[in-house]
Task: structure prediction
Amino acid sequence: MKKTKLLTTLGAVALIGAIGVGSTFAYQTSETGFVKNTFTVGKVQFDTSMGAGLTESEVARDTDGKYQKDVDGPNNWKKTEQEYTKLVAGEELLKDPTVHIAADSEDCWVFAKIENANEDLSIEYNVNEWEDVTDAYKTANQIDTKTDYVVYATKNIIPTSKTVTHSTIFNSVKVSKDLASGTEFTPIKISACAVQATGLTQAQALAEATFK
Result:
């Protein structure tokens, strides 16, 4: 009987010892901080410091009777409407409609719609920076009729910049040498649209272009 009690007592002591060891052991751990992700949407936008995102230099006739631009200083595009009067055959009219892409605007394609229904006024485009994409625009928008406008596009993406980016669409308008006396003209109207370049080819961006 005593032997049995002794074994029982020793078993109890052993169990207590095991519990004691388990209660004093701790696994080593370590924690990291958070990785925080913040998202903001970029902007494709024109600069309006000139009064609008598409403006021209002021023009006026000089003492020789020829139209000259930059009469208010160079690179000072602030006109959104101008009037050319008393035109004569063969005359060249300086005109520089220029788009202004805002600083920090995202990379973008820029398109311009030029409405000119005057057979006696031909536009001299800035072919170094702009190209005719009228057919591609009509295809993208399923237009199969003749139009009295053309669509031009910047040849290259206008990249984001810390300063305003300016791009002149055309440089002058020439009056036909066969201009008849009493010819009446309709206004030439230009509008522009910028579309993000990231993930889009020029053709894909053109399909998204809208004009006033």
